[in-house]
Amino acid sequence: MDVTAEPGLVGYSLPRTRTGRSSLVPPPPWHYSGDFLIVEYRCDPDAARAYLPPELAPGGDLGSAAAIFADWQSCSDGGDELLDPVRAQYKEFFVVLAATYRDEPVTRCPFMWVDQGMPLVRGLVQGFPKKPGSIWMTRPVTVGKAGPRLEAGGRFGASLAAADRRLAEATLTLTGVSEEGPTVNAPPLFNTRLFPAWEPEEEPLAEHVWAGGRDREASPVWEGEATLRFFESPADELADLAPVEVTRGFWLSFGYTVDGGRRVR
Amino acid sequence: MDVTAEPGLVGYSLPRTRTGRSSLVPPPPWHYSGDFLIVEYRCDPDAARAYLPPELAPGGDLGSAAAIFADWQSCSDGGDELLDPVRAQYKEFFVVLAATYRDEPVTRCPFMWVDQGMPLVRGLVQGFPKKPGSIWMTRPVTVGKAGPRLEAGGRFGASLAAADRRLAEATLTLTGVSEEGPTVNAPPLFNTRLFPAWEPEEEPLAEHVWAGGRDREASPVWEGEATLRFFESPADELADLAPVEVTRGFWLSFGYTVDGGRRVR
Amino acid sequence: MDVTAEPGLVGYSLPRTRTGRSSLVPPPPWHYSGDFLIVEYRCDPDAARAYLPPELAPGGDLGSAAAIFADWQSCSDGGDELLDPVRAQYKEFFVVLAATYRDEPVTRCPFMWVDQGMPLVRGLVQGFPKKPGSIWMTRPVTVGKAGPRLEAGGRFGASLAAADRRLAEATLTLTGVSEEGPTVNAPPLFNTRLFPAWEPEEEPLAEHVWAGGRDREASPVWEGEATLRFFESPADELADLAPVEVTRGFWLSFGYTVDGGRRVR
Amino acid sequence: MDVTAEPGLVGYSLPRTRTGRSSLVPPPPWHYSGDFLIVEYRCDPDAARAYLPPELAPGGDLGSAAAIFADWQSCSDGGDELLDPVRAQYKEFFVVLAATYRDEPVTRCPFMWVDQGMPLVRGLVQGFPKKPGSIWMTRPVTVGKAGPRLEAGGRFGASLAAADRRLAEATLTLTGVSEEGPTVNAPPLFNTRLFPAWEPEEEPLAEHVWAGGRDREASPVWEGEATLRFFESPADELADLAPVEVTRGFWLSFGYTVDGGRRVR
Questions:
Q1: Looking at the predicted structure, is the pLDDT value of residue B1 above 80?
Q2: Is B135 exposed, middle or buried (0-12, 13-18, 19+ CB in 10 A)?
Q3: What is the Cα Rg of chain A in Å?
Q4: How far lies C42's CA from each of C57, C96, C106, D75, in Å?
C-alpha cells in the first residue's frame, strides 16, 4: 500500500508527527560549514575501474583519487540546531574517484563514513554510501602550542576507524597558500541512491543522482605534502583503493547549501 | 536515471562493491536474540490518535501502549558478525500503540531510538522510525551482588536519551513468572517505509508494510510492577505519549528472524 | 610497600613499561590550545559558600561565578598526539566560584566534566574534580551558513550532559569585541588533589594546590549576551550553583602550558 | 598544604560536596557481577620479565599469561546505580602475567582498558593500569539464532581497541564444562597504585598493593579452543606480550566485592 497524503502526520523523514519536529532529517535546504583535509592521490587504476558503475567511463585519468576528511557543522533553514550543537556537528571521511559521464568529468564516491546518525541517514538520501565510523582531524589554532598554524610548516593528521579498526590515516605538512587548490574533487559527484525493497523479489529503489549543492564558498586554500595509508578490514574494502602514489594535500574551510538535486538523465 | 542491473557492483545496501562485503546492511534474513524490558501503560487517547496514520482506526483500546527497551545481538545468515561483536550488539527503545487495521488488532510504532548506525539504517528499511539515541538497561545476573536475579524482587532500570537529553526512564520490580506475558505489543506491527525523493516536487517513497518476522522464540516471561516517565525535548516529541497510567512490566529474552516482509494491501 | 626506584619500568602514569610510551598521561609540560565559551553569572551566595573548603574565605563577591565550556586540543612536549588527533582533542565544562585565600582573590572549581579518558585522569592529577560527560559547543565559521561569525550578532550554544542527563546549557549572542574580557575566572585556581587510600582507616592523599600554568596566550575576546541554565540530576549536584542572574558571556581562543605546580602553603 | 579535615565537603573521590553524592567514585565496598571470556596463553618469557617490577620474581612459569575480557555491572553498597544502568555497566580487557612474590604465586597486570570513565578512575585507585578503550564481547543467548548457547560448539568473539586502533581480538569455541577452570588468573593480583606528584622534583605516590576482593562467586565454567591476536600501536605496547602459544579459553560469570585492600608488605 502506498501511503496516501497524510495531513495528520508530517515530516521529511521518519518519525512523522503532527508538527514534523521529531523527524530525524529536516527538510532541505541544508546548510554546511566545515574544514577539509584533502589528500589527492593515485590508486590502482583497475581497482578504481571496479568501483565505477556501468554508466560511468574511466575517462583519461583513471586512478586519480582524493581522500577527504571533513569536520562539519550543519543546520536546516531556520538553523536551531546550531544552538544545540550536539545536533549540528559531525565528522566524515570519503574517497572520490575520477571518471566521466558522457565524456564530461565527474567524481564517484565509492566509500564514506560519518560519526553521527542524522548525517548518516541524510547522506543516504543524497546517494552517499555512508557507514558509521570514527573520524578525527587536527584543528588549526591561533594561540598556544597545541596545534598547527595555517602557515608553512603547519602539520595536520587525520584518521578514520570503523567497527573498531583503523581504516585510514593521513598527514599534511603545509608548504603555503595554494594557487590552484584541490582539483580531483571538483567535478560533480555522480551518486547512487539505494533503498532496498521490502517485498521479496522486488527491485530496490536505485537511481543515479547528482549530489548537487549551491552557494559554495571556500576560504583561502593551503597546500602541502601529504601521506596517506589505508588498512584492511573484513567489513570495509577501502584498502582496494589504497594509494599507489600520493600527489598533494590541501586544507581549507568550505561552506555550501544542498536543497535536493536532480536525477541523472 | 534508474540504475540498470549492475553485475559489477553488488550489495543489499550502499556501499556496493564487487563482493558486496562492505555493504552497511547485509541482505536478509537477519537473526535477532535479545533481552526485553517492556512496560505496558496507557497514554492520553487523543495523543495516541494523533499518531495513527489515516489507514488505522483507534480500535477499542485507544491509549493502550507499551514502552520497550531491547538489548540486542543480531547477525546475518552466515553470522560472522557474532564473532566481531562490535558489529552485532546494540540497544533500542520504542513505543507501540494499539490500533486496528480493517478491524484487526495491529500495533503502530510512532517513535524508536537505537545506539548503533547499522541497525538504524536497517530499521528504516523495515519501516521503523529509528533515530540515534543512548539506551541502557539493567542486566540480570546469576552471581554477585551487582544485579537482579530473575526472581521475585529482582529490580531493573532502563533509560533512553537522545541529543544529550534524557527522554525516558523506567523501573521494573519482578513479582513472579508471568502466565500471560505482555499483550500490548503482540499484534503485528504496521510500519511505514519512507525514503525522501531527491528531485524537488517529487513524492517520497512511502509505503505501509508489515514488519514481519518468523521463528519467534521467547524465554519464560517475568512480570512485575513498573514505573515509566517520559521527558520533554525540543527535538523529540515522545512526551506527547507520556504515561497516564502504568499497567505492568515484563522481562524476557526473545529471538526471531526477519527476511523481508509484505506491503500492506 | 612503597615502590622502590624501578629503572626497568617507567612512565609518568600507569601503565609503566620499559619505554614509558604506553602511559595514559605523558609527563608535563602539557600544551593546550582551545576555544572557550564563558558565561559570567551569579549564583546563590549560600550555595557558593557551601562549596568552599575551610581554607578559603568568601571574599567580597560571594556568589560570583563563571560557567566555562572549552573545546581543546592538547599535546605533550614533542607533540606526536597532534598528528593522531583522537589522542589530542576533547571538550570540557567547569564552573569557577570567586573566593579569597589569605585576602587574595582566587577561584575555586567545584565541578568539572570532560569527554575523554586521558584528560579526565590528567585533570585529577592537577586537582580538577573531573567526571566523564558529554560537552558540545557551537564553532565559529568563516564560510557558509552553518555557523556564527566572530562578529556582532554571532550566536553560539553549548551543552553539558552526564550519565545521559542534560546538566547545563548556554547561549551567547555576540555584541562586539570585549575591552575587558572575562574577569571572574582570572584569579588563580585553588585546586584540591585527592587520591583515596587503599588501606582501610588510612587517610587519602589530599592536598590543595595551585593549578598553575604559564605562557598564557589569548585571541581577541568577543563578548555578548548570554543565557545559562542548570538541571537537576541524582548523580550531579551542579544545580546547587544554578544562575540567579546571568551577567555576560564571552568567546575566545586560549592557549597555555602546564608543567606541574605548587602545593598551597 | 595538606587538606585538614573538611566536615563541610565530603566524598570518597572528587568532586566533594556537602552530601558526597556527586563524587565520581563512591566509597567501597563495590560490588561486581560480570561475564568473563578468558584466554590462557604463553607470551615471550623475556617480554613478560620486562613487565615485572623488581619486587616480583619470574617464578617457575615465566611467560604464562591470560587475556581477560569482562562485561561488568557494578554498584556501590545501597546500589542505586543498578536502576540507572548507564552508571553501572562497562566492559574491560586486561592481561595478567604469572610471577611470584616471596616464592608465592601472584599475578601481575601490565595493561588494562575500560570503556567508561568511573571504573577507569576507580581502577587507578585500586592500582589497575587502566586506560580508555573500546571492548566488545559476544553474549551467550538462550533463544534465537543470534548468539551462542552455553554448550559445546558455542562460539564467542571479543575485541579491544584504543585510540581508534584495534589492539586485541579473540575467539572461543566451547567444548564443554570445565573441570578445573582458568588457573592463570587465580593467584592474587599484585597491583601498583601510582599518583604523580604535583610539585616538581617530588616523588609520586607509588605503592604496591594487593587488589583484594571477597565474596567471590562463579557460575559453572565453560572451556574451549581459543584464538588470540595482539596488534601494534604507537600508543600501546600490548603487542610486546603477544601470544606465542594459545593454551585454552574459558567463559564464566563471576561476582565479587572489593572494599579496599592492603598494601604489600
A1: no
A2: buried
A3: 19
A4: 17, 11, 16, 36
Rg (CA), chain D: 19
Q: What is the pLDDT at residue B7?
A: 58
Provide φ and ψ at D186, rounded to 5°.
Answer: -75, -40
Which of D198, D201, D265 is best to mutate for the C interface (most C CBs within 10 A)?
A: D198
For the record, the C-alpha cell of B138 comes out as 539493567
Among partner residues D54, D111, D125, which is closest to C4 by beta-carbon distance?
D54
Contact C111 D22 (CB under 8 A): yes
Identify the pLDDT of residue C8.
Answer: 87
Q: Which of C134, C135, C164, C231 to mutate to test the interface with B (most CBs of B within 10 A)?
A: C164
Task: Please give the Cα distance from D159 to D69 (Å, whole number).
Answer: 8
In order along chain A (265 residues), what is the average pLDDT of each group of 10 residues? 62 96 96 98 98 96 98 92 98 98 98 98 98 98 98 98 98 97 97 96 96 97 98 97 98 96 92
Q: What is the pLDDT of residue B78?
A: 83
Burial class (CB in 10 A: 0-12, 13-18, 19+), B170: buried
> How does the average pLDDT of chain C come out, rounded?
96
Q: How confident is the model at residue D154 (pLDDT cuts 50, 70, 90)?
A: very high
CA dihedral sign of residues D34, D39, D41, D46: negative
Residue holding cell 496516501? A4
Q: Does residue A19 sit at the C interface (CB-CB below 8 Å)?
A: no
Phi, psi of C250 (to 5 degrees): -145, 150
Average pLDDT over residues C13-17: 97
CB contact under 8 A, A32 and C158: no
Residue A106 backbone dihedrals phi, psi, to 5 degrees: -135, 170
Confidence of residue C171 (pLDDT cuts 50, 70, 90): very high
**Of D44, B220, D234, nearest in space to C84 by CA:** D234
Packing angle, helices A117-125 and B117-125, rounded to 10: 40
Residue D207 contacts C, CB cutoff 8 Å: yes
- N residues, chain B: 265
Four-residue CA torsion sign, B57, B59, B64, B68: negative
For residues D118-134, average pLDDT: 98
pTM value is 0.97
Cell for A33? Answer: 560549514
Question: DSSP states of C122-162 as a string?
Answer: HHHHTT--EEE-EEEEPPP-SSSSSS--SSTT-EEEEEEEE
The alpha carbon dihedral of C215, C219, C220, C224 has a sign of negative
- Contacts D118 to C, Cβ<8 Å: 131-132
- Residue to mutate among D1, D21, D44, D208, with most C CBs inside 10 A, is D1
Cross-chain CB nearest to D120 (options C8, C117, C262) = C117
State the pLDDT at residue D265: 87
Question: Would you call B260 and A51 a contact, using CB atoms and an 8 Å cutoff?
Answer: no
Query: What confidence tens digit (pLDDT) does each residue in C89-138 have?
Result: 999 999 999 999 999 999 999 999 999 999 999 999 999 999 999 999 99
Distance CA A115, CA A69 (A): 12
Alpha helices in chain B (DSSP H): 45-50, 117-125
pLDDT value at residue C7: 58
Does residue A233 sit at the D interface (CB-CB below 8 Å)?
A: no
Nearest to A192 among B3, B51, B132 (CB): B3
The reply to whether D100 touches chain B by the CB within 8 Å rule is no
For residue C139 the three cell numbers come to: 564553532
CB atoms within 10 A of CB D50: 16
Q: For A86, which of B110, B125, B163 is closest by C-beta distance?
A: B163
DSSP state of B83: G
